Each structure stands twice: as structure tokens, then as C-alpha cells.
Amino acid sequence: MNKVAKKEASEVKASVRLYYEISDxxxxxxxxxxxxxxxxxxxxxxxxxxxACGKCGYTEFVSSGKK
Length: 67
Known about the structure:
Shape: globular
Oligomer: single chain
Number of strands: 5
Helix content: 10-25%
Mean pLDDT: 82
Largest sheet: 3 strands, antiparallel
Structural class: alpha+beta
Strand content: 25-35%
Order of helices and strands: HHEEEEE
Radius of gyration: 17 Å
Low-confidence stretches: none
Number of helices: 2
């Protein structure tokens, strides 16, 4: 590997740590799964907090409880 390739490889962060957590020797998914298609859903905060599936388009809005 040349110096440029080594530098690029060291700057890349493992995105697996963003989606899974390990506790007590078990791996757990941090995000929700879509009830319609089973894919991992994305959590969006703006403009309205919601969980959205990019595969089938299913969306759950999070109620803030404020009026």
C-alpha cells in the first residue's frame, strides 16, 4: 500500500458501529425494522421527527406530546 491508500484507509470509519450495538455478547440493531417489508428504517429529525423506510416508503411520525 502506498501512503495515500494508507491514509484513506485509516480515515474510513466503520459504519457498522452506527447501526448495531454489542452488549452481553449479543448484537442488537439500534434502529427499528419496517413492519411492512422488514428493512431497517431511518430516523429523521427535521422537518418533523419520523421513522421512514427507504425501500417501501412506510413512515411513522413521532408524536412529541406538545400542543
